[in-house]
Amino acid sequence: MPLARLENFLKNLNGNILYVDPNELDATDSIENRGNSRLRPFKTIQRALIEAARFAYVPGTNNDLFDQTTILISPGTHYIDNRPGFYLDESNVIKDVNGSTRIISEFNVSTNFDINDPANQLYIYNSHNGGVIVPKGTSLVAQDLRKTKIRPKYVPNPVDANIAASSIFNVTGACYIFGFTIFDGDPIGKVYTDYSVNTTVPNFSHHKLTAFEYADDANTLVKGGTDTTHTDLENYYYKLSLGFGSQSSRSVIDGFDNLADEEKIEIFEEALRILREVE
Prior knowledge:
With about 280 residues, the protein is α/β, with parallel strands linked by helices. It has helices at about 5-10, 45-55, 230-245, 260-279; strands spanning about 15-20, 70-75, 75-80, 85-90, 95, 130-135, 140, 150, 165-170, 175-180, 180, 190, 200, 210-215, 220-225, 225-230.
């Protein structure tokens, strides 16, 4: 069988199965890779989760696919950059955990998906308190319970009251988790412990970090005593709508459907204003 036909045979066109294997020679998290071929898997679970959300998207309101994707995780050590992600404030301005105004750039071939780089673009899609969001109906399935290891890259400082408790995964409805073991931060590496890019060896208590929590779509976020009027899941899907723009060749045009048109316009105008200031 010619190699091209073999690759098509091993590729799942509908995104029902995505593959993660950082040890595969051709593994890449690049935006042009959809991770639906065994011959070209993703490097990270986080990149696969973002792709799972994209595969589930259908233009229109309240009609996205459900129970769409299974992510198959190969044996090995997989790192999760579970730092707090960005959120929208009450004025629909994108901010980070420190309250600084930020911009979410569209995915393109130059997007930084290197999970070992503090400036990677994966963690900004996390929950506002930290934790990677697992999209609705997504399954995380590993092939070997003992040999498939998950390690967090963010462990909240256990003695700093200003650092909130966090999680590794924030699951949504009908998620399924099977076949891997969650470990502490890498003892021969370093982890983030606060809201900076400083790292330290994780030889301390992990009691402020849980393995799983639920992503919240019932309660709006309160930041600095002010209600942002947006829930955690609303933030997540809106951020994805910005990431999957025209440069990704897989644009999500509806993002944040619960906002009125004028509010959407305000968001993008604010983003443009900030971009001009940066330039």
